[in-house]
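Example complex used in Figure S2.
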Amino acid sequence: MSMPSQAFNDLFFNSVGSEGGRDKIAEAGGKYIRDRLREVSFARKIIPAENISRTECQRSVNHDTLVKIVDIEPNSKAMAITFRGSPTARYIRAARFEIPFFTITSEKFEKTEQELLAYEMPITKIIEENSVKDMQEIEDRQFLLFIEAAVQGMQLDANSNVATAYKVSTVLASSVVASSVVKGEGTLAAGADDFTVYPIQKQDLIKVKQLMHRRRLKAVQIVITEPDFDNFSSWTIQDVGMTIAGETTVEGYKANTVAGLKIIRTIKTDLLREGNVYCFTAPEFLGRFYVLNQTKFYIDKIVNVIQWQSWEDIAIGIGNIASIVKLELFGGSVTPGATTTGYASLLPVEEEDLAAVNNKVDSGLTYPAVDQY
Amino acid sequence: MATPYFEFKSDVATLLRRDFAPVTASDLQPNGSRPLVEGEYLELDTTEFKVKRGGDNNAGTANAATVPSFPVWAERGRYDVQGLGKVPVIYLGMYEAESQIVDTTGADEGDALTVVDLTHGSLVRRGLKKTTTSGDMVVGWVVRVLTGKLRFIHTGFSKLP
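Predicted assembly (534 residues):
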């Protein structure tokens, strides 16, 4: 059932004012201008979320937080022997690791009931819906921090535990081991240790798959920003053949896969920065994403001030750090301890700096601009 | 579970508890050389929006705080703290609490407390001690002196005149 937004706002603060009336209210439909596109979590597409209960978690005797302990498969091998030979023995063991739980929460929103009357759009409903995607944005941010740490952990290990800058000059000089990262062909051709982002090429995807396949793992999917993905449409006949080149000229690149890899695209270029492409195995080789408590919603009214907030409790863990490889389309180094100046622009923005606004309405920049008189 | 080093004696719900990343990430590792414990005080870093121990890691030189310092409210080794790399501190709000990260020397009811380097469990920590020095940042007022503990109230930040 649709209703005017003003009536929706009236219903909202009337319902909030009643003892048992703090129910969710159906959307009225809005005639308002959106500021930016909000996207669901890409982390959940890479590692599907599983619900988990408290009884499946482990506690501590020293504090009141929870972890989930997950096993890694044990190692084993076979051998050829003579009719009189016998095999080597293995007293089996298998590693396990802990995935800690934490909370992701929206801001705590507040408004007086009188000021809600000044809005024609269903502002509370909009914020409630956007909050879910805002929290998923933080899920993605945490996921990116974890996978980047995984990639850099493999790099550190491969370079004898010495933080070695992975940049164009060290790659061309072969003075750094490329265990989990490759540079794009355009980047290497440019030859500069800077953060100019070059278009992705078909050969780049081949190289990143090969990194994974050399570990007896199967590259399955990539996550890529929309701006980087747009460069697929610029591939020539030599890369994609006449048919696809013609299609991409008219309609853009439409397929869900490229070079055998499932494509996960994201517009969250403040989190997954342009120039970074990550490649993953199937989830069972990678890690786990647990949801301990689904999104909860709290609302309260104290005198004339309405407050509301939502949160969820989750855990994300990368158990096999070899299951992630990275393609860098820029020349500088983001290796911790051996970074190139300006590296911060290639890492996810700080939480405090998220939620940048596109519109300039507060600066008076709308057109035509008139004054109320 | 051992008795926490820092226990509230007033409501927690009204306090603003905020998470900050520490300047020194290894402070969050429970088996590190000097892990953070509840009741230690941290101050904001001047260049990054992170927290750090003030002073110079030397109980002998005290280094009383001259800027607002916030008590850590997280037991050593919490999984959420380790997982996120952030530590919750009591950022805003008045409260009453008891702390074991203290130096009770000369303390009496009504005394002003500041944050200094002191030795607790053979490690140097940022904890509470009586102050009468002009310019020191007062973070609390003693309401009761106990053996190895101080009970105090925090009413805000002020510099001792």
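Confidence is low (pLDDT under 50) at residues 18-30 of chain A. The longest helix of chain A spans residues 123-158.
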